[in-house]
C-alpha cells in the first residue's frame, strides 16, 4: 500500500520581491516624470549679453557702408614673424574617412 502524504494548508500569497521592485520602479518613474515637468516649466535665464546695435529698431548697414578706418585691416602691411607660422598652408597628408588601399593587409601578419 502506498503511503499518503499529508498536504499542508495553503497560506495566502504575500508580496514578493518582484512586486516590491515593480512598485519601486513605478514610483521612481513617476518622480522622474514630475521632475521633468517641473524642469520644463522653468523659465530659462538669459546668459547672453544685450546687443543694442543689433536691435530690430536700429538702422541696418547697407552695401556701401564700411567699417571705421581704425577697424580696417591694412592689406599692404608686412606679416610679423610671430604670425607667419599660423598663416602657412597645411602641407601634411589629407585626412580621410576611408583607410588607404592595402593598409589593413600591411597591418596583419
What does this structure look like?
The protein is mainly α and 109 residues long. It has helices at 17-41, 81-87, 103-107.
Low-confidence stretches: none
* N- to C-terminal distance: 76 Å
Tell me the series of helices and strands, N- to C-terminal: HHH
Beta-strand level of the residues, as a percent range?
under 5%
Report the mean per-residue pLDDT as an integer: 79
- Number of discrete helical segments: 3
Task: Based on Cα principal axes, name the global outline.
Answer: elongated
Q: How would you characterize the largest beta sheet?
A: none
Keywords:
single chain, mainly alpha
Gist?
With 109 residues, this protein is mostly helical.
SSE inventory with pairings:
Layout: H1 17-41, H2 81-87, H3 103-107
Amino acid at each position: 500500500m502506498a503511503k499518503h502524504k499529508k498536504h499542508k494548508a495553503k497560506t495566502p500569497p504575500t508580496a514578493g520581491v518582484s512586486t516590491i521592485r515593480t512598485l519601486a520602479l513605478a514610483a521612481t518613474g513617476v518622480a522622474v516624470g514630475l521632475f521633468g515637468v517641473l524642469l520644463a516649466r522653468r523659465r530659462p535665464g538669459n546668459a547672453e549679453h544685450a546687443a543694442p546695435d543689433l536691435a530690430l529698431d536700429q538702422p541696418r548697414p547697407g552695401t556701401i557702408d564700411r567699417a571705421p578706418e581704425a577697424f580696417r585691416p591694412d592689406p599692404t602691411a608686412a606679416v610679423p614673424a610671430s604670425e607667419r607660422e599660423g598663416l602657412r598652408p597645411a602641407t601634411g597628408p589629407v585626412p580621410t574617412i576611408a583607410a588607404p588601399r592595402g593598409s589593413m593587409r600591411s597591418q596583419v601578419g
